[in-house]
Amino acid sequence: MHYSEIEIPKDREKLIGCYLYLSNCLRSLWIDYVTYAEEKHGPSDPDMYKILFNEMDFLEGLRQRVADRLPPKLISNLRKVDDYNSW
Questions:
Q1: Confidence of residue 84 (pLDDT cuts 50, 70, 90)
Q2: CA of 53: how far to CAs of 25, 38, 39, 82, in Å?
Q3: Which of 33, 49, 65, 87 has the fewest CB neighbours in a 10 Å radius?
Q4: In this structure, are residues 48 and 39 in contact, taking their beta carbons and an 8 Å threshold?
Q5: Rounded to two decimals, what is the model's pTM?
Q6: How do residues 50-59 score in pLDDT, each as one tens digit?
Q7: Structural Rg of the chain based on CA atoms
Q8: Range 48-69 burial, b when 16+ CB lie within 10 A, else e
Q9: What 3-state class would DSSP assign to 86?
Q10: Is residue 66 classed as helix, strand or coil in its secondary structure?
């Protein structure tokens, strides 16, 4: 399934909740990636990178669709809340 096929809510509060939820998922996935990449013996499965980055691409695309329905000023403030992009 492609992220463009996911139905997203129209209600502003639900959109905000979706945005925060997706940001949390992305942050968690990023932590998993960094942990995996920094393992003592190093990553040995290149397919793991494909899985991680495909999942990140899916979540980022979906989050952008949600962001497109919210005011830019609000998105600017939401990006300051526990967002992995600020690392």
A1: low
A2: 13, 16, 18, 20
A3: 87
A4: no
A5: 0.82
A6: 888 899 999 9
A7: 15
A8: eeeebeeebebbbebbebbbee
A9: helix
A10: helix
Query: Quick one: tokens of 18?
Result: 């979706």
Q: Which two tokens stand for residue 17?
A: 């909740």
Query: What is the residue whose two structure tokens read 């980055």?
Result: 53
Directed axis angle between helix 12-37 and helix 46-67, to 10°?
A: 160
Distance CA 59, CA 3 (A): 8
φ/ψ region of 2 (left if φ > 0, alpha if ψ in -120 to 50, else beta) reads: beta
First-to-last CA distance in the chain? 29
Place of tokens 């600017």: 76
Token output for 23:
């940001």
